[in-house]
Amino acid sequence: MKASESPVPEVVFEEGAFLKVAALLEAQGSRRPFVVTTAGRRKEFSSLETASSVRLEIFDGAVEHVPVEVTDRAEALLRRAEADSIVSLGGGSATGLGKALALRTSLPLIAVPTTYSGSEVTSIYGLTDRDGKKTGRDARVLPRLVIYDPLLTLGLPPGVSAASGMNALAHSVEALYASNASAESSAWAERSIRDLAAALPVLMDDPTDLTARSQAMRGSQLAGMALNATVMGLHHRICHVLGGSFGMPHAKTHAVILPYVVSFNSPHAEDAMSRIAGALGVSDAPSGIRALVRSLPLPRSLAELGFSKENIPGAAREIAEANYPNPAPVSAEDVERILTKAWKGE
Ligand code: NAD
């Protein structure tokens, strides 16, 4: 198989879709897929391993932020297995490793997302080495096929659902005020905020509500599409630096930081703020985002996440150093103020 040149993945969105994964892989022309996943998700393949004509090679060592040494190890196994495709099953960590391998090998990637990171529909990849996290865009990492099966997410704990859902919502927020936002990307973003804000509170009470699971999954798909179509701003920059250089957990960091960046950008992005407020069903976007975050079982501050106060000036410098588009002009002092507030959870 050759990696697809198409910029849009084929999508199967269906309860129970994963049961058909062997047939879907065969239809893609893959007989020796290399599966990347996290340890807890390996069990999803147990019945498939015995029942299928497709020969699976499974690597279950995916971790957050795609460390280069994990990627090296997985690549060596993939090459030894003479794999003809890569299948990622799991959250953004598994998808991220799948993307890094697709970038290195040009093999096609088939993604089976089980959280709300939205990464499965983007051509954005990340790789972390001792100098921090580097991100880029490359058509080779965009999955050829995405299989959405809400049944796979029934066991996703409320805290993970909430954090991951806020990660998706952050994609949509930044897509709405991106300098290259289009009518289409903004429509995806608004719809995704509506879906996520409706589904997440339901899932906190009943994680097995299948209608809410499907709605959250659809919301995260749209958020990923909006992210893929636009440029990222200050919020994503902060989260990448805190994750890549300071080891902060990705989705929870998004949840802590988002209200502060929305407040900071609010006076410079009126149209986006009124769309966000409309999608949340509130009159003011910053307080609406804050209220949503506070209603979910999420950490409130960077201090709670274990971020050391002494790291704030260094992180602020690294964040402000890079050249990225943002509706409000940003200085290192601005970032330091944002991080200090987020550290305290004010
Ligand atoms: P994750 O993939 O690490 O998953 C979080 C936790 O949930 C893990 O412990 C995982 O094992 C568990 N889990 C996953 N699915 C489950 C399920 N169905 N049931 C029970 N437990 C389950 O975290 P994440 O927040 O999904 O992804 C974070 C990563 O994704 C980061 O590395 C981030 O940089 C990346 N990301 C990339 C993009 C992109 O477009 N490239 C976009 C968003 C996030």
Describe the structure.
- The protein starts with 9 loop residues before the first strand and ends with a helix.
- It has a 6-stranded parallel β-sheet with strand order 1-8-5-4-2-3, covered by helices on one side.
- It is built from 13 helices and 8 strands.
- By secondary structure, it is α/β, with parallel strands linked by helices.
- Helix 6 (183-205) runs parallel beside helix 10, helix 8 packs across helix 12 and helix 10 (270-280) packs across helix 11 (285-295).
- The model is unreliable at 1-6 (pLDDT under 50).
- Bound molecules: nicotinamide-adenine-dinucleotide.
Range of strand content: 5-15%
Instruction: Estimate percent helicity.
Output: 40-55%
Number of strands: 8
pLDDT below 50 for ≥5 consecutive residues: which ranges? 1-6
Radius of gyration: 19 Å
C-alpha end-to-end distance: 52 Å
Largest sheet geometry:
6 strands, parallel
* Shape annotation: globular
H-E string: EHEHEHEHEEEEHHHHHHHHH
| Total count of helical runs of at least 4 residues | 13
List keywords for this structure.
alpha/beta, 8 strands, 6-stranded parallel beta sheet, 13 helices, binds nicotinamide-adenine-dinucleotide, 11% strand, 346 residues
How is the topology of this model organized?
Elements (H helix, E strand, L loop, with lengths): L9 E4 L7 H7 L5 E5 L8 H6 L5 E3 L8 H13 L4 E6 L1 H14 L3 E5 L10 E6 L2 E6 L7 E4 L9 H19 L6 H23 L4 H20 L4 H11 L5 H16 L4 H11 L4 H11 L16 H10 L10 H13 L2
Parallel strand pairs: 1-8, 2-3, 2-4, 4-5, 5-8
Antiparallel strand pairs: 6-7
Helix pairs in contact: 3-4, 5-6, 5-7, 5-9, 6-7, 6-10, 8-9, 8-12, 9-11, 9-13, 10-11, 12-13
The structure holds nicotinamide-adenine-dinucleotide (NAD).
